[in-house]
Amino acid sequence: MFGRRGAVKMGSGDGRPGDAEAVLAEALRAFWVMVGVLAVIWVVQAVNWADGYRLSLHYGIHTRDVTGLTGVVTAPFLHLSWAHIEGNSGPLFIFGFLAAFRGVKKFLSLTVLIVLVSGMGAWLTSGPNTVTAGASGVVFGYFGYVIVRGFFDRHRIDIVVGLVMALCFAYQFAVLLPHRGISWQGHLFGFVAGIAGGWILRERRPRAATDGGTRPLPSGAGQTTPGSRADLLKELDDLGL
């Protein structure tokens, strides 16, 4: 709720009042978080390119190689070409921002979940003697989260945003299917992790007080005020009861 300086009352899409300034502040934090993430990825790409992409080969995900498990964490920051990072950067910023603007802390928890599930999925199921690198699995994780978050949180505006994103980027669903030379495994596991994150990180709403655990009591039900009791006694007295 907002009271001062002519602030506007802003709903969350389900009738509950929200704080417009707080929402805008969180969106601004989400914007700068994603700017920072992209800056890091592009700096790493420049170093990686100058080193002949040896960083990707050494710190990518080596399928079922226990010594290469660190690649689960490092691979999203590494790419295999300029075209690769250019293709990931736009969707990463869009879906990352949409995933983060409801809360950066929740977004960080979501990111950890997506990175681990996507990376481990690629590590376990990719073809033998392959190295996986790139932020695609994280992109698909954010994509899945943005699509389902509104349904789990029951925010109408987020449902609309999710549907619009699903329609605008419908062609991306084809990349979840097996393709030679593409880490579809990381995409698929990232997408599943994003959907799971939508459920795990959904908003918990307090339950209304219930009558015997059956249904909510209407306001004022079962209550008598001193005035109403006095009126009842007076009526009984007038009737001679």
From TrEMBL:
InterPro entries named in the record: Peptidase_S54_rhomboid_dom (IPR022764), Rhomboid-like_sf (IPR035952)
Membrane topology, from the record: Multi-pass membrane protein
Superkingdom in the source lineage: Bacteria
A GO BP entry: proteolysis
UniProt entry tagged with the keyword Transmembrane: yes
Intracellular or extracellular location(s): Membrane
Signal peptide: none
Record domain Peptidase S54 rhomboid: where: 70-203
Keywords in alphabetical order: Hydrolase, Membrane, Protease, Transmembrane, Transmembrane helix
Transmembrane segments: 30-50, 107-125, 131-152, 159-178, 184-201
Major subcellular location class: membrane
Region (Disordered): 209-228
Single GO MF descriptor: peptidase activity
Transmembrane keyword on record: yes
Protein name: Rhomboid family intramembrane serine protease
Organism expressing this protein natively: Actinoallomurus oryzae
